[in-house]
Amino acid sequence: MYESFYRFIQKLSPEFKIDINILESLLKSKEVRKGEFLFHKGDICEFVAFTYKGCLRSFVVKHDKEYTLFFHTENQTFGDYESFQKNKPACFSTQAIEDSEILIFNHQTMLLFEKTVGGQKLLRLVAEDLAFLLRDKLLSLLIDTPQERYLKLIETEPQILQRIPQYYLASYLGIEPESLSRLKRRVYKNQKS
């Protein structure tokens, strides 16, 4: 059932070996309906997760306006890791934007990973991936224009554009939905020229 997760692990760290039967006894699959929250800002995030299928988003609210930080599609990890590790309130919320299925990793599962040969390296590689993602997002917000961010999204994750509502895309790019319509027309016109 968890083939894509095992492929994810092997791609990230081929030397990591774990007893699949023990791991499967600890993994919890959870179906999440469109619009359902996994956790809200201020909650304690009691897990980290892997998107098996579907699409979720992490976001913050400032002055009653939502700002989408990330979209989590298939074969991606997510969660508020600091909240999970330090039992602190989460600093963002995560919500399903499609009917989704996720794999839940609780503290017991993480301990199993840590104790397994190559497990600490695997967890470090996952943490590094997340750190690079955060770095890229921060740099893009500081350096790139919304149009440049949109073009990067077209280049790196074109399939996601068909899956997410336009108002979430606008909040991800840091613009208003009306500005997104103009931006898309401009990009389309430039591509036709």
From TrEMBL:
Record InterPro entries: cNMP-bd_dom, cNMP-bd_dom_sf, RmlC-like_jellyroll
Pfam families reported for this sequence: cNMP_binding
Superkingdom per UniProt: Bacteria
Domain Cyclic nucleotide-binding: 21-110
Name of the featured protein: Crp/Fnr family transcriptional regulator
